């Protein structure tokens, strides 16, 4: 017998199938098996502030003035950062490694950038 997956929203085990939809009776969430496959592929994806998926080598723009730790300088809004590298297992939330002209190598959080 085919075991249905738990609800992705509330993790309930009492899901049932209705046509091509899977339904959770506890939270009324509806989804398809295809959406589970798509979401599992993108769970490790790093996204910018607008929800766009970032890739190594992308160019991003800073969306907020950022104070540089240990310095009195600030990275201004609108600064373009070219050729970023993504860090997937970052424990401190800084998931972009890059070089910024005039500042040097540093790490950024993806929530403060947008894809250019």
Automatic annotation (TrEMBL):
Residues 46-116 form the Protein YjdM C-terminal domain. One of its GO terms (molecular function) is hydrolase activity. The keyword ATP-binding does not apply. It holds the Pfam family YjdM. Keywords: Hydrolase. The keyword Hydrolase applies. It comes from the Bacteria. Coiled coil: none annotated. Residues 4-32 form the Protein YjdM N-terminal domain. Belongs to the YjdM family. This is Protein YjdM. It comes from Tepidibacter formicigenes DSM 15518. The lineage of its organism: Bacteria, Bacillati, Bacillota, Clostridia, Peptostreptococcales.
């Amino acid at each position: 017998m085919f075991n249905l997956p738990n609800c992705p929203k509330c993790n309930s085990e009492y899901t049932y199938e209705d046509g091509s939809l899977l339904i959770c009776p506890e939270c009324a969430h509806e989804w398809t098996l295809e959406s589970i496959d798509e979401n599992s592929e993108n769970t490790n994806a790093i996204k910018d502030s607008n929800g766009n998926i970032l890739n190594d080598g992308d160019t991003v723009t800073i969306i907020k003035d950022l104070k540089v730790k240990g310095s009195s300088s600030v990275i201004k809004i609108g600064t373009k950062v070219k050729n970023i590298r993504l860090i997937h297992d970052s424990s401190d939330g800084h998931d972009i490694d890059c070089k910024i002209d005039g500042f040097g190598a540093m790490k950024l959080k993806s929530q403060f950038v947008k894809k250019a």
